[in-house]
Write a structure and sequence with these properties.
Elements lengths: L1 H39 L6 H15 L9 H33 L3 H29 L2 H6 L3 H32 L2 H7 L1 H11 L3 H10 L8 H31 L5 H12 L7 H8 L1 H22 L8 H19 L3
Helix pairs in contact: 1-2, 1-10, 1-14, 2-3, 3-4, 3-6, 3-13, 4-6, 6-8, 6-13, 8-10, 10-14, 12-13
Protein name: Intimal thickness related receptor IRP domain-containing protein
Keywords: Membrane, Transmembrane, Transmembrane helix
Organism: Phytophthora rubi
Amino acid sequence: MSSARAERGVESSVDLALFLPASLVLDFVFAAHFWSLYTASDRLAQPRVQFLVASAWLSFVTLVPFAYVSQHTLQALTDISETTMVLTLVVQVAIITRDAVKQCKLASLRYFMRAAEVFTVTGTAVAVLSVADVCLTSAEATAISGWHVTVEAVNLAQQNAALAFIVTFRYFYIALSRGSLLAAIEKHPMSTSLYALLVTHEYPFIIARNVVSSNTQFSLKPLQGFYMRVLVLLCIWANARDHAASRARRRRPRTTPQASKNRHLSSVVPQSSALPSATRHRASPSGARRLSSAMSRQSLRKVYQLHSPVVAPQPTQSAMSAFMSSLAGAAESLPQ
């Protein structure tokens, strides 16, 4: 009995000294990222954007009183923080799909838009259940048979399904906008690996929990929450880096012999006769379809870039420096 109490004391001290403060800082960076992203785009007046930003800040606010609450309340607040973080990403998918449907009338995009709305409703309902779990005291939660276990299981299932949906939508959208999914995966191996780790972030802890919990009372849940937040922010950083690299490639002039030949022809041939390919595309049905497909992909890329971090053309240094400066600013804002 005394050893179990000592292990629970060590667990609480490790949580309060390491994992929970670090998770609080990461939640602040997450919320500040979406606040700055949509403030810069002047879209805060839209209800869905307001809901997204509120969910992002709620994931930070719920962890603020971590040092002054009971273990039961702390666990429920942690569940709310993780649920609202995933809910923020789902709402962003809903906003992106609504913007994309206006540019490109595709049935598949409408299906993803409706699925995102469903996940938004279910995520909100799960967050409300977690708030009700916070309102119940530990004795009341124990009196209601299996209440806390049920809320935690529903929360976990909703998070896993929402994360799988987010990653599925991302690569579907990439394949739709770029024309090839395999080429996009081969082009961005780091972001692909990070998203794969995010979807499967819970499985290593399930295996470790079966080993650790059988011998001790030590909980891996705080470490799992910290690991999930790190992966979410790394995915955001990798996405920003990929967009910065793409912009830098588009701005860089081509130096291939074919590009030099094209520039020479464009300077010699009159401007009115320099666009025969577009005319041929419009003349034939297959050419019109190719031109329409290219225009659709370009419009989809523009929609996706509106919801991506704005960084400078130097991908690695600018994105990483912005990420680290956000971390430093968040750390300085915490009380000493």
